[in-house]
Amino acid sequence: SSGTDLTGQPNKGTLLGDSYQVLDAEDPRCVSSLNDDLPNPCKNDGEMEEAKVVCEEVVNPYGIFAECVGRIPGACVQNFVKDCMVDHCDNPENICDIVSKFAEACKQEGVDVPMWRKAFDCQMECGENEEYLANGPGCERKCLERDQTYCNTPPREGCFCKTGYIRCKGACIIGKDYCPPRTGRRYGGTPARMCCMHSTWYWPFGGSSYSSQDIPDGDFIEHWC
């Protein structure tokens, strides 16, 4: 995205989307869509030079993105550096967001560079019982889906539950393989109105069969998820 403040700009969505496009040589959109009349956020030559060094390192032909850079037309590389410098001068702390967009564009070109976060000191902070995975599962196991074996969502980057944990209401917990005691208002009647197997709740469906449903809200269910 462009580091220039785009608030109020009628085409700000286009500017944000086009700033880091990685396109083939035949695509005329390789030309940057950023307006040259917009103010340059670089306050002085020193700040501009620092931004140039940082941004040129991203597209270093011998750097971590070398394979990807080799597939990109020179005009696109130059426009990336230009747009990157604008972003960096506007806010140097944006460098991880800048590199993230470039890494994603490279992935769309068929080049995955999972180690870029370490190379640019952009490690993702994860929560308790979570770990960062560059190519994590597209479908992370959840309380209701603990035994899930099919997933058609492609791998993705992010924070995932560590081995042995499953996600329940946003947190990573150790899954329970048994049902809680048959007590409480949700278990009235004989037989119980619902049962739990392998962390999945089943409600009566027809005569003697059960069908899985979403876990109802409530402290009791949340505690036993």
TrEMBL record:
This is Uncharacterized protein. It comes from Owenia fusiformis. Pfam families: C8. The keyword Oxidoreductase does not apply. It comes from the Eukaryota. Keywords: Disulfide bond.
